[in-house]
Specification:
rod-shaped; 4 strands; two-stranded antiparallel ribbon; about 90 residues
């Protein structure tokens, strides 16, 4: 009876010790990171995916001729853009 109890406790201890070792390894913060496969639809209809270490969306392409001439912010949607003054 005493031997059976000892063997039972030993087996339970081994099972418990092995169960604690089944945790997956911690994520390596320095290793490569996979971004989700989402896409953002740009105003011109093209799509861009996520890039970089923070998985941010890539910037939308700027069509030629629509690039701002200066670093001034673009007017909000619906606001008229500054046009060239009329010819005299």
């Amino acid at each position: 009876m005493n031997t059976a109890r000892t063997l039972l406790l030993l087996a339970a201890g081994l099972v418990g010790a092995c169960a604690g070792k089944s945790n997956p390894p911690a994520e390596n913060p320095d290793g490569p990171k996979a971004c989700t496969k989402e896409a953002k639809v740009c105003p011109d209809g093209s799509t861009v995916g996520r890039i970089g270490p923070n998985c941010e969306f890539a910037p939308c392409p700027v069509p030629e001729g629509d690039a701002p001439a200066s670093d001034a912010p673009a007017p909000p949607p619906g606001e008229p853009q500054n046009a060239a003054p009329p010819s005299p």
